[in-house]
């Protein structure tokens, strides 16, 4: 059997309705709109409602992606949810999303933890599984309710994150040239402590002491991560272009992880890719981790920034530290 060529057949996204502005945040912690905007480019972010969980956000995005692909839940036999904010420590949020979407028991459903690189990791995993011929159509979802793990007393992190979901349907190409050209993943596990949630796992189980010590919230060495992020994304972009004998001029649109406008600007400068070829929505949604790239990708497509025949470059970095890139033709 010939190896099928895999393409993204549709995308969808969802953001909660509640908008949290910098102005509002400056009433909760010692910060200002000016500080947040100049250091990060973020103006506002979305916050999920109480009772709205990651699987709810994921299911909304997935439904939109299925419609865009012209498929239904019955067509899906592989479901991956990339998230660091699962509904529960177990079972996998993917199984909960499966039930919400009405996907049958024939489907393999699992979560993937690669933090902000989760969607690129999911694309790589799903496209390899589909290319094996053992699965036909996959839903890859990046979904996060980061507001549930942010320390709202810590001004160094709480201004950065938001809630959202984005999804893509993958399957055999429909003969229009669309395909996932390449994916490349990396990890630097020695830097795991730079960005983590210290407690709640087997190394440091939840206890009254971990709760009292605010150990269930995101802890981050922001300044160090900034430098590493730019270097990692540069490496990922250079290598994937080189391996596929492509140049930056052939990329119609870069969809970077939306963590900080200054990181995106630094990448644009060092890679000599003009900033107007980067799709940027960090100003409106902040850093939504695993949801960041699929949300931006879906918006970019809907706004006509990604057109048929275009090649897009997705590039991510996140906790782990994980990083990676993907080249996708539409
Ligand atoms: N409001 C006002 N002041 C703040 C603040 C806030 N929300 N957060 C931090 N500060 C203060 C710091 O306390 C520090 O004060 P000091 O000089 O008196 O010590 C000062 O601002 C500068 O802090 P610094 O951390 O050096 O700022 P920065 O320019 O590096 O910007 C980040 C901080 C977090 C925005 C930036 O480092 C960043 O984006 N890093 C990458 C983080 C990231 O991408 N994480 C996700 C990975 S997926």
Report on this model:
The chain has helices spanning 22-28, 33-40, 54-69, 93-101, 118-131, 155-158, 208-212, 222-243, 261-271, 282-285, 292-302, and strands at 6-14, 18-21, 44-47, 78-82, 108-112, 138-145, 163-172, 179-187, 195-196, 219-220, 253-256, 311-318, 322-329. The strands form four sheets. Strands 1-7-6-4-5 form a five-stranded mixed β-sheet, with helices on both faces. α3 (54-69) crosses α4. With 330 residues, it is an alpha/beta fold. The chain folds into two domains: 6-175, Peroxisomal Thiolase, Chain A, domain 1 (3-Layer(aba) Sandwich); 180-329, Peroxisomal Thiolase, Chain A, domain 1, CATH 3.40.47.10. The chain binds coenzyme A. Coenzyme A binds at residues 31, 35-36, 39-40, 116, 155-156, 159, 195, 220, 222-223, 225-226, 229, 259-260, 287, 318.
Strand content: 15-25%
**How many structural domains?**
2
Order of helices and strands: EEHHEHEHEHEHEEEHEHEHHHEE
Provide the CATH superfamily of the largest domain.
Thiolase/Chalcone synthase
Distance between the termini: 25 Å
Largest sheet: 5 strands, mixed
Structural class, please?
A: alpha/beta
CATH class of the largest domain: Alpha Beta
